[in-house]
Design brief:
The protein has 530 residues and is α+β, with helices and mostly antiparallel strands. It folds into three domains: 91 residues; 85 residues, 3-Layer(bba) Sandwich (Hepatocyte Growth Factor); 226 residues, P-loop containing nucleotide triphosphate hydrolases (Rossmann fold), CATH 3.40.50. Helix content is 36%, strand content 15%. It is built from 15 helices and 18 strands. A six-stranded antiparallel β-sheet has the order 9-11-10-13-8-12. Strands 1-7-3-4-2 form a five-stranded antiparallel β-sheet. Helix 7 links the parallel strand 15 and strand 16. GO terms for molecular function: sulfotransferase activity. InterPro entries: P-loop_NTPase, Sialate-O-sulfotransferase, Sulfotransferase_dom, WSC_carb-bd. It holds the Pfam family Sulfotransfer_1.
Length: 530
């Protein structure tokens, strides 16, 4: 009996010793892997610096995302600091009117659309629609918010709207192909405010043109605001004012009339007594917040592309805005070298797609290393005045995509350190893409703001696609989307010290010279130091 017991004891001692050695080996292997990963990252940084000996290095906080895609995908940027409509104290208390069908053949509401795949609530949707001047708010798939002034689909069974809102358990947010519709608080006529109204200009209807597209509204007199409200209520995307007569129409009508350079002709038609029937051929034309059905369609590329196109910019240069414009103009999703959860939650569905999948029309990146640049076959380089880029990125860091930094932030040491590191990155980023990109289109943020349509046509031609006129009109009408900081906040002091300005002005001259050396247009005049 003693002998078997001794053998068992001896075996357990050996097993314990074996487990101890295995544990030590496991820890040592893990340490080796960590050291190896660290050396790889160090080597990458050294080679990038060696490849660009004359360029300042980007801030350290943005070097790690270039290491591995798998690492980037597991890091979700926090969006808790973002100031959006969901944090408002005053909530809409609308009336739930029912569950309605919403699919490809029947669209319940025809206004704007807002996505939030994490925080959507019925109150957020109602607030958004109310502030955009709409009477109804509809929620679908638990995360999509639709606005409109008329419910144009059939009623569905109440139990079909069985999905909870992503940000509010127990609150109805539609279903699959089903929309929970609320009537929001009505505002008095003339008091509604719209985010996405666009004035197209004074247009002339040709003599041989038909007026069949026009729908005349009732009422003896109209102001532009009243006409826009009337056409929005009828779910029509165009409002036309001739004198005090209001007409509504669909988008195709705009392509049957001609824009007039003589603005005074519309002013003449606005007079009560028309001196000539010729005056009746002129209309002031506005886009209402109602989106044409074509403009709502966005999808991944039908066939995987064999070429990778970068949409590169320094942070704060307007990359998100340009992505919004490209998606609206082409109907295809854009992707990202990173993963920003807050942008995905706002409807950029390409944000989660692997950046080399070939399913997106272009890929956002802020990288500036030679290796990262040469992975792309071509690139759009979006540039912006460094003073404004720095302020925009600092606002984002302090208060999210749509917020503003406080005066305390601007006067802090954090701001001066930010300018020191990021201003040098502005110049190194531009010079690196000018040097290493295989095929490059340079776009200036300021030119895009001033001359949207021609700039977008140039960009889409570079992307080997074209813009249908209907989508171009939608892009003009909804150019800001939901990705622009509301209002403007002017500082009462200059956040840039003379020392900062001297350094940034020198960087501006360096980039301007590099552009001209490549036979490209230099920086816009407003960039240049005076």
């Amino acid at each position: 009996m003693a002998k078997p017991f001794y053998r068992l004891q001896h075996f357990l001692r050996r097993a314990q010793l074996l487990l101890f050695f295995l544990g030590v080996a496991y820890i040592m292997a893990g340490s080796v892997l960590l050291l190896q990963r660290s050396s790889v990252l160090t080597f990458q940084r050294e080679t990038d610096t060696a490849a660009l000996p004359s360029l300042p290095a980007p801030p350290r906080s943005l070097e790690l995302p270039a290491a591995r895609w798998l690492y980037r995908r597991n890091v979700i940027q926090k969006s808790s600091s973002e100031h959006n409509l969901s944090h408002k104290k005053d909530r809409q208390k609308g009336t739930y009117i029912g569950c309605f069908i919403n699919n490809e053949t029947e669209h319940a509401l025809g206004g704007t659309i807002l996505y939030d795949f994490r925080k959507m609530t019925s109150a957020l949707c109602q607030d958004t629609c109310s502030e955009s001047g709409f009477r109804y708010a509809g929620l679908e798939y638990g995360a999509e918010c639709h606005c409109g002034n008329r419910v144009c689909a059939r009623r569905a069974r109440g139990e079909d709207c069985n999905l909870d809102c992503r940000g509010e358990k127990g609150s109805r947010c539609g279903g699959v192909g089903r929309m929970s519709v609320y009537r929001v608080e009505d505002r008095l006529p003339g008091q509604r405010r719209y985010r996405t109204v666009h004035y197209h200009g004074c247009y002339k209807k040709p003599q041989n043109s038909t007026a069949d597209f026009l729908i005349q509204t009732s009422g003896p007199t109209h102001t532009p605001q009243q006409c826009i409200e009337t056409c929005t209520d009828q779910d029509l995307p165009l409002a036309l004012l001739r004198g005090q007569d209001c007409f509504c129409s669909h988008v195709p009508f705009l392509f049957t009339i001609q824009m007039s350079e003589q603005e005074y002709m519309c002013e003449r038609s606005n007079q009560t007594n028309h001196t000539s029937p010729y005056d009746l051929d002129y209309y002031w034309v506005y886009s209402t917040p109602v989106l044409d059905a074509t403009c709502k369609e966005r999808r991944f590329m039908p066939q995987k592309s064999s070429t990778l196109v970068a949409l590169s910019s320094f942070p704060g240069a307007g990359n998100t805005w340009l992505r919004h414009l490209i998606e609206l103009a082409t109907g295809f999703y854009t992707g990202s070298y990173y993963f920003d959860g807050s942008l995905y939650n706002k409807g950029f569905k390409g944000e989660k797609d692997y950046w080399q999948s070939g399913r997106v029309i272009c890929v956002k990146t802020h990288e500036s290393g030679q290796h990262e640049i040469e992975m792309f076959d071509s690139a759009i380089l979006l540039m912006r005045n460094p003073y404004r880029s720095l302020m925009a990125e600092f606002n984002r860091k302090c208060a999210g995509h749509l917020g503003y930094a406080s005066d305390v932030h601007w006067r802090s040491k954090e701001w001066s350190e930010f300018v020191d590191s990021y201003s040098s990155w502005w110049v190194s980023h531009a010079l690196a893409w000018l040097r290493f990109a295989h095929r490059l289109l340079v776009v200036h943020f300021e030119n895009l703001q001033e001359d949207l349509a021609p700039q977008l046509k140039t960009i889409t031609a570079f992307l080997n696609t074209s813009i249908p006129e209907e989508r171009l009109l939608c892009t003009k009408s909804n150019r800001d989307g939901h990705f622009k900081r509301s209002g403007s906040r002017s500082l009462t002091f200059d956040p840039f010290t003379p020392k900062m300005r001297a350094r940034i002005d020198e960087y501006i001259r360096t980039v301007d010279s590099a552009l001209r050396d490549r036979n490209l247009d230099g920086l816009p005049q407003e960039y240049m130091p005076r």
